[in-house]
Amino acid sequence: MHDSDSLARGVAPASAGTLHARSVGGGIQVVPRAGRTVRFGRGEEPDVDLCVGEDDLRVSRRHGELRYDDRRWWLRNTGQQLVRLPRGRLMHTSTDPVPLAEGYTPLFVKGSGHREHLVELYVTGPDQQRLVPRRRADTLPPKRWPLDDDERLLLVVLGQRYLRYEEAPRPLSYRQAAEELNYLSVGASWSERRIEYRVGVVRQRLNDGGFPQALFQGVDSGGPCDDNLIHNLLKGLVESTTLVPPDLRLIDDDPEDLAF
């Protein structure tokens, strides 16, 4: 709907700590003051300051609030439905208030059926008062991770459901991957153990390079790799466009053209 720059540019210059909030129903700008509370939901003024999901009876009339204390804005869910934050974090009415970081934070209020209502939040920081439009600047590409040919083929096989953008995809098992790789790679000998080793090499290299998804359990970088960690690896590679749908040609073409 709006990126962080456009949300901040859509209001007048403001002091550090100023809260900008926007939904389909409108937008507000609130200066920081100890004890100041901003409420959002389906209701009307003066019950709420920002209207969200005005036609959706699953959204509470007072669904959430933002309160300024200890020099920060704190988000609390006061509605019957969950609130979703970035990285899949969920908030219930029993969840402790969450502090907002400076800059842009989107949150989603769960509504009827598959509906989710977006609320865009932006907290002005000390260095974010003079945002400069950069409409003509070159676009920064996503960070793509280096893979050799064998690694790319292996990860495309494991992650083909992700590359087809299936709903709730999961990786192939190592056994399934070994069977498909031995069919695709003429003269190669792929085993579950070899796959585990090659995936481990990729995990370690990407983890050392600052990969955004968790690739190891806790602080133990030598632990086993379960299905959820493979999911994180494949999800991160697809989201970064390191792996893209055209890579599926590696498993769709004539096997004799794919020998490495």
Q: How would you describe what is shown here?
A:
- By secondary structure, the chain is an alpha+beta fold.
- Helix content is 25%, strand content 20%.
- The strands form 2 sheets. Strands 2-1-11-10-7-8 form a 6-stranded antiparallel beta sheet. Strands 4-3-5-6-9 form a 5-stranded mixed beta sheet, with no helix packed on it.
- Helix 2 crosses helix 4.
- The longest helix has 17 residues, at 192-208.
Q: How do the helices and strands line up, and which of them pair or pack?
A:
Elements: H1 4-9, E1 19-23, E2 26-30, E3 37-41, E4 50-51, E5 64-69, E6 72-77, E7 83-84, E8 90-91, E9 98-99, E10 103-110, E11 116-123, H2 149-158, H3 160-163, H4 174-184, H5 192-208, H6 227-239, H7 249-252
Parallel strand pairs: 3-4
Antiparallel strand pairs: 1-2, 1-11, 3-5, 5-6, 6-9, 7-8, 7-10, 10-11
Helix pairs in contact: 2-4, 4-5
